[in-house]
Amino acid sequence: METLYSYICKMSELNSKKSNFKCKTWYRISALLGHLPKTLTMIEIQRKSILGEKTRYTVQENGESYRVVANFLAVRITPIHFAGRVHVKSMITKFDKFEDLNLIPDLLKGIRKSRYYKPTNIQKAAIPFALSGRDVVVMARTGSGKTATFLIPILQKLQKRSSEGIRSLIISPTRDLALQTTKFCQKLGQFLDLTCAIVVGGESLENQFMGLLQNPDIVIGTPGRLAHVIAEMSLSLKSVEFIVFDEADRLYEMGFMEDLKNIIMLTPKDRQTMLVSATLPKNLIHFSSFEMNDPHFVRLDVDSCLNQQLRLCNLYVNDDRKIFVLLYLLTKVIPKEEKTIVFASSRYHVDVIQEAFNQAGISCSTAYSRMDEENRRINVDKLRSGSTHVLVSTDIAARGLDIPALDNVVNFNFPSSSKLFVHRAGRVARAGSCGLAYSFVSQLELPYLIYLYKNIGRELKFAYSESDVNTDDLIGIVPKHIIDDLSYFYKLHENQNIKLLHIAAINAEKKIKKFKQKCDSQSIAAAKSIDLGSLVIHPIFKGSDSTLACPVQFSTIGFKPKRKPMGTNLDNIFQARQELKFLNN
Length: 585
What we know:
The protein is α/β, with parallel strands linked by helices. It has helices at 4-14, 29-32, 105-113, 121-131, 146-158, 175-188, 205-213, 223-233, 248-253, 257-265, 322-333, 347-360, 373-385, 418-425, 446-456, 480-493, 496-514, 521-528, 570-584; strands at 27-28, 41-49, 53-61, 64-71, 74-79, 136-139, 168-171, 196-199, 218-221, 242-245, 272-277, 296-299, 310-316, 340-343, 365-367, 390-393, 408-411, 435-441, 461-462, 474-477. It has an 8-stranded parallel sheet, sandwiched between helices. It is globular.
């Protein structure tokens, strides 16, 4: 019988003239032949079309089976039986509850204690493969339960304390996501004799060194700090059995690949790997950098990135009127007991909204990337505890922050990326619950809304008739009296803080537009063809009247407007014009 070595040599000679061949996923044959045992015997050959023409083999040597995938001049060899793994054929393929997975009792107890009774769709699809020992790539929308998808197999595999060293490594793109994962890991494994250490920036290096010296079973960290600590401590990763790349698309986008490659090189080749991502990268070849062994792909909600329980409400409003509509929403439309997050494009917009809320008597907390990490945590805890029901934030809260269950999302500035919208809106309607996402859309932002709907597979509806009562996926205008009444009170008070913050926000918006992702020409053309003048009032404002439209109760008793000298002094004239221009906006 022909040996695999001789077959590969023959194929190499036949295909040596294929100059256009490019393959980054598989090992080059020239590098492989020097290490390939010449006694491997082919016992099965079958051809399949998977991402191109490939040949799959099952080979044996000394009773050990191997799976081989060959793609012209490149070959990858993977042992079918890894130490400590269960054969794929014995895998549980279907389960409706966690008890069906034959998990150890202490892990099941932790799952129940965490109030997890029914697995999500992504957990049903991915956990059995992870428990069987296969490498898995998991792609599903935000809020689908991906964290438990890799934590449960890790805890089941490790089970109890070991003196071998670090046995599991979880790498996250941000400090906040790593902290969130650590908290959840401790919650699920609270009845297991396992230790967990976190290695992230912004924390004491000395404390992290001490934590690693305790020989933890699981280490959760960010790539930069983790690579630094490993180098400083000459930390061994030879005992790593399970490695997870959480939010892998962000790890790649944020430029961490060099650190990741250095970490991967220190881990055993027969480790189990899980790659978790909310979105598909533009090029699947990027996954090859994570050195996975014949991974199983699990993709859910590919056609619809948003939960079907999530309702979308779109309001057509100019940028300079958005603050008034937001005040109305939070005082007259959204119930006060519901938790809401307002997304703005910059921290300057966050400051403007916060000041307006202070004037209106609306309690809120804020979060943005430049805020001190401790203050950011305190502000998020205020939302979690219920001391405030509104969080105003930049996109740092879209991914990475441990935000509690929310009822509503408000896109104060509509995102230029559909991917970013999915992550923002994914903060509500999680784990099967319902939620509502409001979006304020100006004329310049309309093409991005159209492009979004094309991507998520929903139909964008326009409010051309007052008989429309269904608010889902509908875009309509805001009643004029709401804006007029609120503007009146702002003109009375002429809040100097809001003026200054508003100017800073305008300047920030100009800078953002320079780097804003351009919308496709088809969506721009579609936006231009829409008859915006025929839009009617959105159904959520039905029944509102002018007397109820003003939620901001300012006291006007004793108010006296400033007198402005308007003679021939050019400086005074210029100042008055600037203030009038701001007030009119």
